[in-house]
Structure formats: structure tokens, C-alpha cells
């Protein structure tokens, strides 16, 4: 899904055929603390992101895409806004003959920053400074989840007919499946207790919605999917194609030693960035998911520092349970559902 969003960003800024795309020559600086972009001519700072806020990097031919989280500011008393919009994603698109090399350099900055983190926490093994043969670790990491099988095999698809009154909302809340999903879809996060979706008896929280009235919703932005669902309000029968899935995702990461980075970062229990192609992505980790358990130990009420320490020191098979943060907040009453 992340790659699709990167390609979408490139497509949005692409100039119409026969026209040139306006661009600005820039200098890119990468360190273990931040990524900065300066206007080459004016030496003005055009981009300044802490490395920990970078959630995705992609090289597509001679195009480099960098996605970064930026926390939204709100007034101290605006608690509802702070909960709903804690951060937004900024997407930066660069063109360079060395796009792949730049992406690799940023990846190396993450690796060095990780080793510095280990040393700062007392994990100082001489072997860490040796070149990491990460490919061997990747080869041992199986791709978790049966998503591809579930979505490609129509035997697992289920058509659900939702009868309703004209003008009546379907009565569901949907959220994104999370960056890192093998197939990007929207997930049924909640249902109005007396709404049509709940009354029909064929839907469950966690179901991934493939289409509505024959229109595919795979790979579409959440806002577009919400528009399609709202557009069915005037109909008296709505047909949904879903893949039944539990709301909790099982993650298994195989990490032979602490010197091999897990490849994702956590903030207050929420996975906020993920290394493309790393063992975590293969193991089922998804951006935007809330970690519920680590090795059969609940971390729902555990402080951020303890979660980080627990992950940093875990080796062997690391089992986790996660779910989309929006579903977690809805199920725990931290967020008020707004039904479509």
C-alpha cells in the first residue's frame, strides 16, 4: 500500500503530456538525526524532518519519494481534535539519476542510528560494528499472513446483502488496513448496533471490504471508499463483497541477534514507521497498528519506554498481536464512532 501511495503521489504531480513539470534544484542532507532539503540557489530550508518521523522511502526509477509524519498542533483544550488528528503525512517527491543510491543512504542512516541507540542502552557488542549480512536474516523470515491467498481465491470471498431504508446510512465505520498490508483494503471497524449492517447479520468487525455494489475498493484512499459508502445511502439494497478476517493481526518476526534491526519504530504502542522489505514487514508488521501483545505479554497499559526496551532486547521468535489503532480506540471507548 505504501508503494501504491508513493506512485499515486508521483502521478498527482506529473505534468500533462507535452508540458514540463516545474521543479527546483535542491541539496539533500542526511544524518542519523534528520533529513534536510535546501534550495540550491537560495539556501533556504525547504524540508527539515527528524529521522524518526520518516515513515517510508521509495525509489521508483529516477524518482525518490519520502513520506514523513508531522504532528498537528491544536489548542490545549481541543481534546477531540487532538485525538482524531494527531499527525498527518507529508509526501516529498524528488527526481535524480541516483534515486536508488539516495534511498540506500537514508536506509544506512537508519541502521547507524539504530546501532547508536543500542550502545546508548548498554548493548555494546563489537560484532555490531561489523557489516551486517541482513540478507541471510531476510531469507529466514517467512512472509506472515495469508492475505494473498485470501484475496486471490474467490472461495474466501463472501457477498453480503444489506437491506435498508432509502436514505438510511449503512451504519459502519471503516479504517485503512495499514501500511505494510499485502493487499491494501479498508477494514470494518465498527457497526451501529441497530443499523442495517448489524441487522443483516453477515458482517463482523475486522472484515476487509473488497467492493461495494460491484465497485472495487482495493487500493483506494480511505476518503474515496467513504464516499462510495455514503453514495449508497439512497439505495434500499447494498451488496458488499468482503473477506472475513479477525481484527487482530498475528505477527511473527525471526531475529537471531539484537544487532539485526527490527525495522520499525513505535510511539506509545503505535507502529509509526516501517523499513521497506525488512523482517518486520515480512513478519506482518503494519504502520498505524496498535501493539496489543509481545510474546504473550499484554502491553496495552505499558509505558512507551518499556515497550521499546522489550522490543530492542527481544531475539529469536518475536510474537506480537496488533490491530488498527482506530479499531483499538473504538473498541476501548477512546473514540466516538461516526457511522457511514
From TrEMBL:
Residues 159-244, 250-326 form the PDZ domain. This is Amyloid-beta A4 protein-binding family A member 1,Protein lin-10,Amyloid-beta A4 protein-binding family A member 2,Amyloid-beta A4 protein-binding family A member 3. The keyword Transmembrane helix does not apply. Transmembrane segments: none annotated. SMART domains: PDZ, PTB. Residues 1-23 are annotated as: Disordered. SUPFAM superfamilies: PDZ domain-like (SSF50156), PH domain-like (SSF50729). Residues 2-146 form the PID domain. One of its GO terms (biological process) is chemical synaptic transmission. Gene3D superfamilies: 2.30.42.10, Pleckstrin-homology domain (PH domain)/Phosphotyrosine-binding domain (PTB). The keyword Transcription does not apply. Keywords: Phosphoprotein, Repeat, Transport. It holds the Pfam family PID. One of its GO terms (cellular component) is dendritic spine.
Amino acid at each position: 500500500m505504501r508503494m501504491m501511495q508513493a506512485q499515486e503521489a508521483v502521478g498527482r504531480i506529473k505534468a500533462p503530456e507535452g508540458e514540463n513539470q516545474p521543479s527546483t534544484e535542491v541539496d539533500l542532507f542526511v544524518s542519523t538525526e534528520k533529513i534536510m532539503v535546501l534550495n540550491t540557489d537560495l539556501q533556504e530550508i525547504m524540508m527539515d524532518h527528524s529521522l524518526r518521523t520518516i515513515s517510508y522511502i521509495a525509489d521508483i526509477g529516477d524518482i525518490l519519494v519520502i513520506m514523513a509524519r508531522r504532528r498537528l498542533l491544536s489548542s490545549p483544550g481541543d481534546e477531540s481534535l487532538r485525538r482524531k488528528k494527531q499527525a498527518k503525512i507529508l509526501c516529498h517527491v524528488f527526481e535524480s539519476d541516483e534515486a536508488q543510491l539516495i534511498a540506500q543512504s537514508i536506509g544506512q542512516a537508519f541502521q547507524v542510528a539504530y546501532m547508536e541507540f543500542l550502545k546508548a542502552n548498554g548493548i555494546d557488542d563489537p560484532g555490531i560494528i561489523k557489516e551486517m549480512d541482513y540478507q541471510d536474516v531476510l531469507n529466514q523470515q517467512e512472509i506472515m499472513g495469508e492475505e494473498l491467498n485470501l484475496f486471490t481465491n474467490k472461495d474466501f470471498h463472501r457477498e453480503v446483502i444489506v437491506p435498508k431504508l432509502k436514505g438510511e446510512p449503512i451504519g459502519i465505520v471503516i479504517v485503512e488496513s495499514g501500511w505494510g498490508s499485502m493487499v491494501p483494503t479498508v477494514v470494518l471497524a465498527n457497526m451501529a448496533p441497530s443499523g442495517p449492517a448489524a441487522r443483516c447479520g453477515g458482517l463482523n468487525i475486522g472484515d476487509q471490504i473488497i467492493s461495494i455494489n460491484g465497485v472495487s475498493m482495493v487500493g483506494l484512499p480511505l476518503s474515496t471508499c467513504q464516499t462510495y459508502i455514503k453514495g449508497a445511502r439512497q439505495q434500499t439494497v447494498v451488496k458488499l463483497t468482503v473477506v472475513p478476517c479477525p481484527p487482530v493481526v498475528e505477527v511473527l518476526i525471526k531475529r537471531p541477534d539484537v544487532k539485526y534491526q527490527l525495522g520499525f519504530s513505535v510511539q506509545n504502542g503505535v507502529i509509526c514507521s516501517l523499513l521497506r522489505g525488512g523482517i518486520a514487514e515480512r513478519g506482518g508488521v503494519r504502520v498505524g497498528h496498535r501493539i496489543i501483545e509481545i510474546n504473550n505479554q499484554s502491553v496495552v497499559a505499558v509505558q512507551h519506554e518499556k515497550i521499546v526496551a522489550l522490543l530492542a532486547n527481544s531475539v529469536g521468535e518475536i510474537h506480537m498481536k496488533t490491530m488498527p489503532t482506530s479499531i483499538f480506540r473504538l473498541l476501548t471507548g477512546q473514540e466516538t464512532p461516526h457511522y457511514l
